[in-house]
C-alpha cells in the first residue's frame, strides 16, 4: 500500500498572515479523499524526527538555536517565518514523514509527503520558508543506517535546491540534480552535482525535452534510491516562479520522472515543494496530479 505522510500541523502552524498558500497541505489530502484516489488507510501521521538524526545533516549550533528558540531575528527574517515551538514541531514532523516515506518506498516502490521539499535549508542556515531539509535528513538517515549506498535527488522545483547542494557538496554517495529558473530565488546559488538553469518564460516543450534527455544520464551515478522534489511553482500562473509550464506540462514532468524510477527499479520518495499560484485550486490540482500519476505508475 502506498503511504502518504500528513499531519494537521502541516496546514496551520503559522500566524494568520502567513497561512496562504500553506492551506494546500490540508486541501491536498481532502481532495484526494473526496475523489476516491486514496483512503484514510493511505495516510499516516509522523512523529518528530530525533535530534541525532537531524545532526546527520545540520550543524549542532544551528540546531540548538532552533530547538532553544534563540535563532537571531535576522536569521528568522531569512527564513520568512517567526520561529515558534509549533513551527519547529511542524518541521520535525515533516522530516520524519520523509524518512518514514523513504522506508515505505523501499518496501512498496513509492511514498509521498504532503509537505516537505524544504530544500533551501542548509547545514547551518534556514531560508525561503525552510528550517530543516527533509530530503537531506532522510537521505543521510538511509546512508547512516546502511539502507542505501547511492542516492539520487531530483529537484524540479522552480527554485534551486541550494541547501541540499550545500549539505551534500562533499558527499559522493549523493548525486544532487536541480533544474530550476535561472533568475529565480535563491539569487546566490550553490553548486549541485548537476545544475540546469532555465531561461525565464520556458514552457512545456522545452522543459520536457531537456528533462527527457537528462534523466538517462543520471543513471551513471548508479543510484539505488531516489528523492523527488515535485514543486508546482513551475506553473505559468505561479506568482514567485519565472517559468511557464501548464498544468498538463507539470503533470507530464511528473510522469517522466516517476516512469524513469519505475522502469529502472528505483524506489522513490516524493515531497511536494513549492506552489504559489494566486488561485489555490491551481496549486492543489497540480499537486494532486503528482499523487495520481505516482499511484497509477506504481500500483
UniProtKB/TrEMBL annotation:
Domain of life, per lineage: Bacteria
Boundaries of every Histone deacetylase domain copy: 19-289
Keyword Hydrolase among UniProt keywords: yes
GO molecular function, one term: hydrolase activity
InterPro entries linked to this entry: HDAC_classIV, HDACs, His_deacetylse_dom, His_deacetylse_dom_sf, Ureohydrolase_dom_sf
Pfam families assigned to the protein according to its UniProt record, in alphabetical order: Hist_deacetyl (PF00850)
Alphabetical list of SUPFAM superfamilies matching this protein: Arginase/deacetylase
UniProt keyword list: Hydrolase
Biological process per Gene Ontology, one example term: epigenetic regulation of gene expression
Entry similarity comment: Belongs to the histone deacetylase family.
Protein name per UniProt: Deacetylase
High-level lineage: Bacteria, Pseudomonadati, Bacteroidota, Sphingobacteriia, Sphingobacteriales
Amino acid at each position: 500500500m502506498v503511504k502518504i505522510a500528513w499531519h494537521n500541523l502541516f496546514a496551520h502552524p503559522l500566524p494568520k498572515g502567513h497561512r496562504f498558500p500553506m492551506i494546500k497541505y490540508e486541501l491536498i489530502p481532502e481532495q484526494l479523499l473526496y475523489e476516491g484516489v486514496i483512503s484514510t488507510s493511505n495516510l499516516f501521521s509522523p512523529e518528530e524526527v530525533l535530534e541525532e538524526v537531524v545532526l546527520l545533516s545540520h550543524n549542532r549550533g544551528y540546531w540548538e538555536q532552533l530547538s532553544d528558540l534563540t535563532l537571531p531575528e535576522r536569521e528568522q527574517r531569512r527564513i520568512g517565518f517567526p520561529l515558534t515551538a509549533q513551527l519547529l514541531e511542524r518541521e520535525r514532523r515533516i522530516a520524519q514523514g520523509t524518512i518514514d516515506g523513504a522506508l515505505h518506498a523501499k518496501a512498496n516502490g513509492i511514498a509521498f509527503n504532503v509537505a516537505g521539499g524544504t530544500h533551501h535549508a542548509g547545514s547551518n542556515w534556514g531560508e525561503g520558508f525552510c528550517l530543516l531539509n527533509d530530503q537531506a535528513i532522510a537521505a543521510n538517515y538511509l546512508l547512516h543506517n546502511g539502507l542505501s549506498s547511492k542516492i539520487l535527488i531530483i529537484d524540479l522545483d522552480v527554485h534551486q535546491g541550494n541547501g541540499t547542494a550545500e549539505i551534500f557538496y562533499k558527499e559522493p554517495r549523493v548525486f544532487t540534480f536541480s533544474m530550476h529558473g535561472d533568475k529565480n530565488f535563491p539569487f546566490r546559488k550553490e553548486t549541485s552535482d548537476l545544475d540546469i538553469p532555465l531561461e525565464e518564460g520556458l514552457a512545456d516543450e522545452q522543459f520536457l525535452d531537456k528533462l527527457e534527455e537528462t534523466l538517462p544520464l543520471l543513471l551513471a551515478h548508479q543510484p539505488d534510491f531516489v528523492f523527488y522534489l515535485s514543486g508546482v511553482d513551475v506553473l505559468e500562473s505561479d506568482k514567485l516562479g519565472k517559468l511557464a509550464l501548464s498544468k498538463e506540462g507539470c503533470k507530464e514532468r511528473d510522469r517522466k520522472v516517476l516512469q524513469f524510477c519505475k522502469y529502472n527499479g528505483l524506489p522513490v520518495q516524493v515531497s511536494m515543494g513549492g506552489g504559489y499560484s494566486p488561485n489555490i485550486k491551481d496549486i492543489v490540482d497540480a499537486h494532486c496530479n503528482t499523487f495520481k500519476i505516482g499511484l497509477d505508475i506504481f500500483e
